[in-house]
């Protein structure tokens, strides 16, 4: 265990060092928020994949593999396919807009009021994304090092807040590429083959697990469809993802490297699900299936190697936590803070953005201390995002009759409906996304047709 701690401490020191190195490059607002719009293919692919593959994608997919088998990969698969979709169909026009936030598109099509309303939804979503991975960081550190949960949250989450605050997107990009390499080596090339070997090989998995564990649909078509509605479309409108798109040096980088990142996410999901299957064979009666990942790491790996894999898990979690945090601070600084600046515009400095990142980092830590289930929390975040913003955003781009009143009504009713059905049916139910999209769609069309619509339309051709 001592060797493991040394490996992890070296990793943490490297992340903090890269964070402070990034501060030297983050001198302007554009540097701090979108890395100067200057990332090449290697950095872009690494940072995009690392952004998506966080707490739910790693810890959650291993859990799903433990419970359902191969079909647990659908969570990562829908996220990865969403990355491919946004890379092929939206990256090129988004780069032409030279903006910082999703909500700026809504302002161009509707009004400043629509931007403000959507920014409130996006802020909640981004804070939850940051908190979810911080929770997972706490879970991993707590199980493996026998630390109280709150101590793990404050240590692990505090590191993320520190390097995100000082260097912004440049720090995130530098740390993400290291995190991408570590998580690939640690989980895909070390933990997966070693856990399969400990379980007796692939033939032993086939012999010891039910046949349903090798079906790609055992998790249920209703769940697969819900994952597509929530995660695939959520990728298309998430501030954390758009902000990564804005960092690309060129349209070709965004299209090719982004698609490669999406394919990587699908394969990563398969690897995580297989790790969960091996854990089911080796530890069939876990008291808490959320601990499947930490338990298989403890059981299958020797000292030193275990530390590398723990670092890989922390890499995946920290990258997504930092992405959510920076997305939240960008939304607050660029979309909400200008309302209080009284006509001074949104030209916030890098210093002001650092203040927002630090303050919202404290909020993320507070949320992480009171929420527990990472998949439920992720579902809640995406239910609010997709239910409240998908319809108005698509209307802004593709429907000439869309109106500001219709957009605001859709955001309000879609989000409210998602909240109501999450309360009635539970966070993991399928009904919140179905009913919220229905309510948002009907209100958007009806009120847009009853009110005077804008004649302009955002062009993404």
Short account of what is shown:
Pfam families: SSF. The chain is mostly helical and about 450 residues long.
Task: Describe the 3D structure.
Helices cover 79% and strands 0% of the residues. The longest helix is centred in the middle third of the chain and has 50 residues, at 149-198. The chain has a single domain (2-372), classed as Sodium/glucose cotransporter (Up-down Bundle). It is globular. The protein is mainly alpha-helical. It contains 19 helices and no strands. It is a multi-pass membrane protein. The chain crosses the membrane at residues 6-23, 43-66, 72-95, 116-141, 147-166, 178-196, 216-238, 259-283, 308-334, 355-375, 381-399, 406-427, 433-451. This is Sodium:solute symporter. It is found in: Membrane.
- Largest sheet properties: none
**SSE order:** HHHHHHHHHHHHHHHHHHH
- What distance lies between the first and last C-alpha atoms, to the nearest angstrom? 56 Å
- How many domains, as an integer? 1
Mean pLDDT value: 86
- CATH topology, by name, is Sodium/glucose cotransporter
- Annotated CATH architecture: Up-down Bundle
Query: Which overall shape is indicated by the principal axes computed on the Cα atoms?
Result: globular
By CATH reckoning, the class would read Mainly Alpha
- Please work out how many helical segments DSSP would assign: 19
GO cellular component, one term: plasma membrane
InterPro entries: Na/Glc_symporter_sf (IPR038377), Na/solute_symporter (IPR001734), Sodium:Solute_Symporter (IPR050277)
Membrane topology: Multi-pass membrane protein
Protein name: Sodium:solute symporter
């Amino acid at each position: 265990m001592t060797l493991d701690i040394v490996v992890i401490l070296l990793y943490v020191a490297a992340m903090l060092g890269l964070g402070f190195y990034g501060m030297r490059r983050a001198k302007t607002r554009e540097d701090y928020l979108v890395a100067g719009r200057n990332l090449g293919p290697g950095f872009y692919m690494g940072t995009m994949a690392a952004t998506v593959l966080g707490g739910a994608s790693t810890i959650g997919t291993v859990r799903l593999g433990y419970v359902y088998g191969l079909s647990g990969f659908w969570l990562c698969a829908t996220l990865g396919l969403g990355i491919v979709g946004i890379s092929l169909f939206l990256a090129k026009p988004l780069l032409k807009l030279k903006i910082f936030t999703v909500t700026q598109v809504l302002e161009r099509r509707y009004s400043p009021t629509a931007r403000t309303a959507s920014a409130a939804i996006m802020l909640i979503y981004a804070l939850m994304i940051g908190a979810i991975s911080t929770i997972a960081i706490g879970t991993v550190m707590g199980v493996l090092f026998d630390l109280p949960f709150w101590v793990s949250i404050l240590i692990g989450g505090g590191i993320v807040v520190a390097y995100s605050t000082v260097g912004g997107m440049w720090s995130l990009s530098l740390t993400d590429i290291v995190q991408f390499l570590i998580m690939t080596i640690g989980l895909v090339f070390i933990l997966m083959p070693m856990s399969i070997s400990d379980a007796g090989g692939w033939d032993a998995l086939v012999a010891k697990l039910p046949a349903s564990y090798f079906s790609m649909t055992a998790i249920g078509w209703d769940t697969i469809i819900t994952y597509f509605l929530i995660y695939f479309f959520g990728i298309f409108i998430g501030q954390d993802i758009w902000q990564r798109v804005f960092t690309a040096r060129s349209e070709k980088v965004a299209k090719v490297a982004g698609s490669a990142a999406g394919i990587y996410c699908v394969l990563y999901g398969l690897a995580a699900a297989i790790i969960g299957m091996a854990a089911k064979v080796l530890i069939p009666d876990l008291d808490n299936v959320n601990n499947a990942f930490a338990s298989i790491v403890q059981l299958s790996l020797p000292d030193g190697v275990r530390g590398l894999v723990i670092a890989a898990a922390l890499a995946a979690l920290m990258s997504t936590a930092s992405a959510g945090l920076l997305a939240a601070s960008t939304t607050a600084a660029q979309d909400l803070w200008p309302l209080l600046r009284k006509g001074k515009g949104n030209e916030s400095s890098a210093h002001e953005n650092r203040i927002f990142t630090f303050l919202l980092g404290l909020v993320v830590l507070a949320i992480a201390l009171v929420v527990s289930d990472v998949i439920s929390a992720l579902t809640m975040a995406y239910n609010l995002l997709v239910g409240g913003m998908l319809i108005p955003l698509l209307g802004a781009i593709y429907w000439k009759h869309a109106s500001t009143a219709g957009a605001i009504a859709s955001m309000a009713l879609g989000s409210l409906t998602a909240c109501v059905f999450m309360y009635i049916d539970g966070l993991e139910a399928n009904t919140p996304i179905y009913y919220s999209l229905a309510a948002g769609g009907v209100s958007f069309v009806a009120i847009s047709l009853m009110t005077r619509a804008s004649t302009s339309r955002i062009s993404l051709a």
